[in-house]
Design a protein that fits this description.
globular; disordered N terminus; about 200 residues; single chain
């Protein structure tokens, strides 16, 4: 897994100061239940998709047709998980504005990379107000990373059930807010090379 070992956040432990509808690039990992190899196997460094894997692949490509203001970066269907980059852009035009001091044009740049010193001083905040994370817990909203990934997982499950293929997801997914263009490139290369490096993957049994 290289530099990406142990650097995911489960969806229940996301940044409380971040709104996951904001324009940004997100590295997403979704695992199958108990990491079972539903999607196929790696042979000679290449992924050989099963019928379920084909469904997972098709549904990932369909995300852009069912969500607004989204582009798909690199992605890969692995035997027991999916890696992919989701690029949200233009949500600010819908009123979901993010931090005011960061350029909203390029979602790969530092708009989504607030350093700790840039965060609001929580001691000066009104503690009676709900944080972004608390509001998200009550209502995940439309065109957020949670709603998009949830829709994807539901679509794969629905089609597998319809065709009577045994399949189940792990209940949560992992996300990582991509910090800058260099990290975007590094993660893209990692995703592309994932099948060839399968035996070194943390999800390899």
């Amino acid at each position: 897994m290289g530099n990406y070992k142990n650097k995911y956040r489960p969806s229940s432990a996301r940044a409380q100061w971040w709104d996951y509808s904001w324009a940004a690039s997100y590295f997403i990992t979704i695992c199958t239940k108990e990491r079972e190899h539903f999607f196929g196997e790696i042979s000679n460094g290449k992924m050989q998709l099963s019928h379920v894997g084909v469904i997972a692949d098709i549904c990932w490509n369909e995300i852009k047709n069912h969500a607004k203001n989204i582009e798909l970066g690199k992605y890969v269907i692995m035997p027991n998980h999916v890696h992919g980059i989701l690029i949200l852009k233009g949500n600010d035009m819908l009123g979901n504005s993010g931090p005011k001091d960061i350029d909203p044009v390029d979602p790969v740049e530092t708009r989504h990379a607030l350093s700790l010193r840039d965060l609001p001083n929580q001691q000066n905040q009104d503690l009676t107000k709900k944080s972004i994370g608390q509001q998200r817990f009550q209502n995940q909203g439309k065109n957020t990373i949670s709603s998009i990934v949830g829709g994807y997982k539901s679509a794969v499950t629905k089609h597998c059930n319809r065709l009577e293929f045994g399949f189940a997801w792990q209940s949560k997914f992992h996300d990582h807010i991509i910090r800058d263009e260099a990290e975007f490139h590094k993660i893209s290369i990692y995703i592309e090379n994932n099948p060839a490096n399968w035996k070194d993957d943390k999800f390899y049994d």
